[in-house]
Amino acid sequence: MSHLPHWSVPIAASLRDQADGVVLFEHHGTVDHDVVQHLLTLAEHSSIAQNDPLALRKRLFNVLVEGLENLHHHAQDDLKDTAWAMVVRAKEGYRMTFGNAMPQAMATLLAHRVEILNDMSGSDLKAHYMQLLANDARTERGGAGLGLYTMARKCERPLITHWLPFDERTVHFALELKVAF
Question: CATH number for the 9-180 domain, one of 3.40.630.10, 3.30.565.10, 1.50.10.10, 3.40.50.150?
């Protein structure tokens, strides 16, 4: 039996080529609490070493926390090993990609939400974010739906989605983001 490469390898190679920068980290596989902490520490040390301003470090950290926590908390148990996260420091800013396998219906819904966020103005994003903060409703996984809004508010738009089919019901889905300098 041959060992197939992780689904994210072709997307990662393409992003590395496009970014023309330095890869801070690239993680393929299950994302647990220890992995989240380790990757956040790597990014923080790199950002400090680059003398990034505090405001940039905060935006970077906020987006990383949301992306990594989404991989940790929202992955289906049988698909946890499909998670992927990558951060590149490029000329124009930090480029991040977070992804994992999910049911096609969920990916379709997520891509639609990303399209809506991409179409919103900054003030609309803030207003909807504040409305969600005031709402006591929670998703079935316990979240309030703030993660995508946080990422959209802290990143340059458009947020970009990537899809690769896995089987007739499952796709590999990735979200690409940029925190500008």
Answer: 3.30.565.10
